[in-house]
Amino acid sequence: MDYQPTVAVIILNWNGRKYLERFLPFILASTYKNMDVILADNASTDDSVEYVQLHFPSVKVLINTSNEGFAGGYNWAMEHINHEISVLLNSDVEVSEGWIEPVISLFEKDTTLAAVQPKILDYNNRDQFEYAGAAGGWIDRYGYPFSKGRIFDSIEKDSHQYDEVSQIFWASGAAMFIRTAIFKEMKGFDTFFFAHQEEIDLCWRMQHAGYKIVSCPSSVVYHIGGGTLSKDNPRKVFLNFRNNLIMLFKNLGGMERLWVIGSRFLLDAISAYKNVISGQPSFFVAVAKAHFGFFSWMIFNQSKSVFPLKKGGKIAGKFDGNIIWEHFIKGKKRFSEIILDIK
Fold first, then answer.
1. How far is the CA of 45 from the CAs of 13, 39, 88, 113, 313, in angstroms?
2. Which of 29, 89, 172, 314 shows the greatest Cβ crowding within 10 Å of its Cβ?
């Protein structure tokens, strides 16, 4: 590779000293030369900023005065970035040697490529995919996200079954390579989301605009996951369900929007009642709040969101079926059992 595009590895930090201490050395040891590492601090109250400044002086530090969540925090950080490629990287991710080069090679070959996700494996079970993205994100007709290697809570072992570069619907925010100019063209993440589903919404908007999202399995990272909120935390349930409905409203149109969102209300209600029966009433409350939150957004807060610049791009990585039916009723546990053509 004669010419190396400029790369900014941006770590959004909030009280994450233990992760920075453990994982920054791996990032700084990356073999890609034309790279800067940037810590974007989201108003931490621990000593993580001072620690990085003292022990990793080559890391550029940006300090925000308030915690704007994942979406707002990265939008703020990206205002300071002029590198050609930005890597949005969680603080609890260990990168492997040579993780940047194969992704940059893909960007160089295709100017319509907007974002790339590496293969994300579980830090504690390294032969297993990690929940947040696995080998690349997909979505079903009703807006339920899943991944190559992860269907709901069924997580596959990595036996190199998804090692082909392929188009996907969404790239995980845990480790997302993105063209900086396109991120800014799309006006970044929807800050109303605060956290959860914002990367799926951004990837959908980028596909609407004619750009592609792909997975790059030859780039491997290891993610701890669940560092902020567990999957069953009521706050996380609320944000996931509310933001998913907002995403559907923004990116779908006409009658499809009406029947898909209507179907989702029914499916969400079934899920909520199921959790009440299984002894998790807080899940029911969180879903109910999410539905009211969606209606509140429709009435009062649409102007605060970022809508697609246009619609009409070819959408990849979308399953024209119901992943709930395939998984819970038909018992399919693996991505390859549902999506037969995975290339």
1. 11, 15, 22, 38, 43
2. 172
